[in-house]
Amino acid sequence: MNWKFWQNDDQKKLLEKIEKLTEKVNSMEEKINDLDKSEKKMNRLQYKQNQDLFKKIDELSQLVDQQSLDQELISKLKSRVDSYSLNVENSSRKIIELIDEFDLLKRGLDSDENSWSSLLKNWSQRLLKLLEQNDIYQLKLKEKEFDPRQAEALTTVNSEALTEYPQQQVSNYKNNQIVEVIKRGYQDQEENILRKSQVVVYKEAK
């Protein structure tokens, strides 16, 4: 592995995050291999979505010099996601875990790494489409009123604390309004909650 790409601490931290993600996907791959072969079939639409995902991952390799990423590490990540995505039909829970990992990695990126952030967002969106093919849909709760049936409030913020969320487009939140979604929630086509979202809620100062 050629370490000459790494020239500062931020780049080292990014590598560590990606390595942890690779280890996580590798662990999930072992569980997927235990699935019955009859549960691994995909329809043509799912296959096309997977191929689109593979194409995007391939594009990441072309950004190696620009983003100071290690070619060997990217290759390992691609092989894990390739193997992982082939089991889409009955691996919805695993896909959700992978989206969580992408979201966590994206949240840790600096603002000057927008191309990386954009690519991770693209991957997540494509995986969300695969979930929709299995009738699993993410809860879109940002800026909506907090509902404990759909979400779990990890913390609350007031107007002063909103400075910690510079990416917010709304400046005047109402009491009990969701400021940020930390972890996505999901429901089925009948709106049964499969997993609650974890959110930050606005509370007016007393």
Automatic annotation (TrEMBL):
Coiled coil: 11-48
Record carries keyword Hydrolase: no
GO terms, biological process: protein folding
SUPFAM superfamilies registered for this protein in UniProt: Head domain of nucleotide exchange factor GrpE (SSF51064)
Keyword entries, A-Z: Chaperone, Coiled coil, Stress response
The protein's name: Molecular chaperone GrpE (Heat shock protein)
Species: Halanaerobium saccharolyticum
Any one GO MF annotation of this record: protein-folding chaperone binding
Organism superkingdom: Bacteria
